[in-house]
Amino acid sequence: MTGAPMDYQQLIDRETWDFIHKTQSHYPDETVSFTIDQQRAVYDQMCAAFYAGRPDGVDVQDIAANAVACRLYSPDHKHAIATIVYAHGGGFVVGGLDSHDDVCAEICARTGARVLAVDYRLAPEHAHPAAYDDCITAINWAAAQWDGPIVLAGDSAGGSLMACAAHALRQMPQLRGQLLIYPSLGAGQTASLIAHANAPLLTAADMAFYRTIRTNGAEPPSDDPRFAALADRDFTALPPTILITADCDPLRDDSMIYTQRLQAMGIPVLWVNEAGLVHGYLRARHSAARARASFGRIIRGLSALCNSDPLSQVVA
What we know:
Elements: H1 8-11, H2 14-26, H3 36-50, E1 58-65, E2 68-75, E3 83-87, H4 101-111, E4 114-118, H5 130-145, E5 150-155, H6 157-168, E6 175-181, H7 191-195, H8 204-213, E7 241-248, H9 252-264, E8 269-278, H10 289-307
Parallel strand pairs: 3-4, 3-5, 5-6, 6-7, 7-8
Antiparallel strand pairs: 1-2, 2-4
Helix pairs in contact: 5-6
């Protein structure tokens, strides 16, 4: 199944191209062929180049959540309205507490919720389900530590992990929602995977690499809901869900299919597909208008979930 090549010069605006070129200057396309240590070093350097700092009014401390390393962001001199547990992206291979430090700090400052960022174990040293187990542990720790709503959030690989956690913990009374940013959900061969197989910043070949490295080279499971949320057979009783995707992303249609599964079960769900954006655009939120607007929707979505407000306000 093939289609006409995407005209990314038309689909993507100048500001977003500037972001893409800056990203590639620090994290070239061939990085996926480097050793794991080299990939992590290059990724950390790239994240540092985009680091925007922490806004005022946020207290930050590194803690252990039942032995899982985490970073806690708390509103300064304010009562937190909820707890957002956040899992970073990075293909299950790269990233950590520093890679998304400014993102988590900004979420805390703009929502008024505390944010617990999870430093889950990375592949290939720690094969599936290590990362999933760490997220479950951190969420359960947060539920025991604080009263009030819990919202799960993450981008890319982190979105995948939090979706799987939501399926496992759907009966948790405090769980009020999940917000997933361009997540990998296990849909397999989709129209977006074919159309955007060679998209800027994430290709189908990259996805294949990240999929198999989670199992350290073993055949990835096809029926394990801890590995991919769409592998689950039960989509009942899930919390309200918001999915935010980039239109120029091979992962885009994972969220469309997941949305359809939740809608069929009557779960409140909102899918927002961002035109002209690419995978990883969170780092462009201060330099590209489209990414800035999308981050505003992410903040409104998290606030809506924390307060049990209608999801429609995200796109109002």
